[in-house]
Amino acid sequence: MMLYIILRNVSLLAYIALLYYFFSNGTNQRILTKCTSKLIWLTMILSVMIISLFTDAFVDTATIPFINLILSFTLIFSMARIHNVAYLDTLIWSILLIAATLICEWLSLNITKLIITNEIASYSNPKFAILGTSISTLLGIVVFVLLKSSLFKGRIPSPSLNISTALLLISIPILSIVILVGVLIRGENISNQNISETAITSSVILLNICVIFLYKITVDHQHQLYKITLSKNALIAERRLLDEVKKNRTNVLKLKHDLKNQYLVILGLINNNKTHEAKNYIKNSLQILEPPLSMYAADGVLNYLLSDKLNCAKEKNIEVCHQISISKHLKIDNDILAIVLGNIIDNAIEASNRLEKKRRQINVTIKQFQNDLIIEVSNNFNSEELITRQSRKTAALGMKNIDGLIADVGGIYRHWHENDRYYVSIVLFNVYHKKKT
Amino acid sequence: MKIAICDDDPALAEHVNDLLIQYDSTLFETFTYYGSKKLIQQIDTEKFDCYILDIEMDTINGVELATLIRKKGILAPIVFLTSYKEYMEAVFQVQTFDYLLKPLDKNRFFQVLDRLKLYLDKVEDTFIFSINKNKFKLKMSDIVYFEKDKRQVIIHSLNEKYRVYISTNQLLGQLNNDFVQIHASFIINCSYIKELGSNFLLLHYAQESIELSISRRFKNKSHENIVMSMRGKL
Fold this sequence. Notes:
The structure holds 2 protein chains of 2 kinds.
Chain A: H1 2-23, H2 34-58, H3 64-82, H4 87-115, H5 126-151, H6 163-185, H7 190-271, H8 275-286, H9 300-315, E1 319-324, H10 334-353, E2 361-369, E3 372-380, H11 385-388, H12 392-395, H13 397-408, E4 411-418, E5 421-428
Parallel strand pairs in A: 1-2
Antiparallel strand pairs in A: 2-3, 3-5, 4-5
Helix pairs in contact in A: 1-2, 1-3, 1-5, 2-3, 3-4, 4-5, 4-6, 6-7, 7-8, 7-9, 7-10, 9-10, 10-13
Chain B: E1 2-6, H1 10-23, E2 29-33, H2 36-46, E3 50-54, H3 62-71, E4 78-82, E5 98-101, H4 106-124, E6 126-131, E7 134-139, E8 143-149, E9 152-157, E10 161-165, H5 168-174, E11 179-183, E12 186-189, E13 193-196, E14 200-205, E15 208-213, H6 216-231
Parallel strand pairs in B: 1-2, 1-3, 3-4, 4-5
Antiparallel strand pairs in B: 6-7, 8-9, 8-12, 9-10, 11-12, 13-14, 14-15
């Protein structure tokens, strides 16, 4: 009897020490005074010992696991609060740590059974009790250390979870606890076996329901991520337009200034009857009026984006062949077109840039045929990358975005390769909004 | 193939003519015009297969001339010549086949001619079938879609419907790549696609639209074939 009381107290105190280690460095803020903190510590240790003594003396052995469960939960909760962990996170950690503890218990029970083969495999056997408690404590230390070192690296994060996500996150650990308790209390007792079976069966059903909800939440999150990515790309395009406007404004001011000076020079030449020099000067000055930006589309953002991308390719010594003309009377949103074109031209530039200079070549064709728009971007690429960069097929969020965007506007997006050339083709139907004449 | 060249710069008009002869001396019958007025007079009588028009002409420019051609209901391909590097919105209004910059680049011009030849060949492609031992000939470009009805196939053309006994394999063997199978019962002409949904498409012809299902079995392949068919127009 005394041995069991000592064993329980030792393992519970070890558990408190582990919890202290786990939650320490959780925050630098102190919400409790030193005195209050000490008082809580003392209360915790005394409560553990008194409850342990009381339950061993007066409570039926079948009820002890449930009391242990409540005690563990209380200890984790108190320790987390001492270390100023947020309430919602405290709840999540309480459940997760109890689940981890129960896994350790279950493992130690089975390991002890394997070690002690010739004796009674029950906690009524002192040898079994000592070995079982030691193994579960050791496993507990390993699990807590691994959890802390792998998840937090010295600091417990405070994720801003909403209640529904938190509940869903703890649902599986809760059900794991129910299953493990069911397994651990299962003995020769028929009523215990029935409770255990009911607990396990209902938990398995609930686990599957939780998975369905998890699936829904994951899909929602992915959808949100997709929207955020699109918004981000649209913002980048807007930012580019603003930069272009600023640049154009500066250019206009510079031109005004230069024109004034040029007129003064011409005036001076004419006053001195140097008409031939004046003519030559005007001819030379006309070059300034050449548009600095190629015109591909009526939309400023789209035109700037295309110019920017194609110039970027030329800067990287990539030979660019292009045939682009996009009407301003397109039904399709220019932001969407900018995102799509930006993505596929970027990919072509990146792939070409990984080749030796003489092989770098990109072809961009955007043509409107009757009411449909056909976009094709092709580039030379290193065919070995089909194997070495295979993971990118599934990891390319950009490509998935394009696929989704094109499908949303009722178009088709296809990409393929022929030998060392990679092709991306997009077809958009009935996008031309013909002007009424 | 009858081609009308219209440019108020005689040297350039002749250069275009020379390039056409260099490309294939037997393929083209060229008609050169140094102004829009004479060409306008002869549009109805000559029935050209293709027009090569300079955009920057005095009095009636190339785009105005093209608008006039389209107003007459003529859908022949139009290729524009221009000195301006800047994009021109006006050319989209008249369903331009292509757009060439002056001075003409021979390779680029020949590429356009390659596509023009392919396009006009397709327009001339015919579908031959028999009904009660009578032979019928239909321009493939006039066929909107084929519908399988048990052992028969209903040919939905721009003007009429025909019922023919023909197997799907025989049918597919006769068709060019403008035609794509989207369902066990439907083979469509990509030129008439107006809208594409996740499991249907809308065909538009003769002022009406028809919705056809795309079956799961044919979805991926049909999407691929539609893209390949449209690429032929690049």
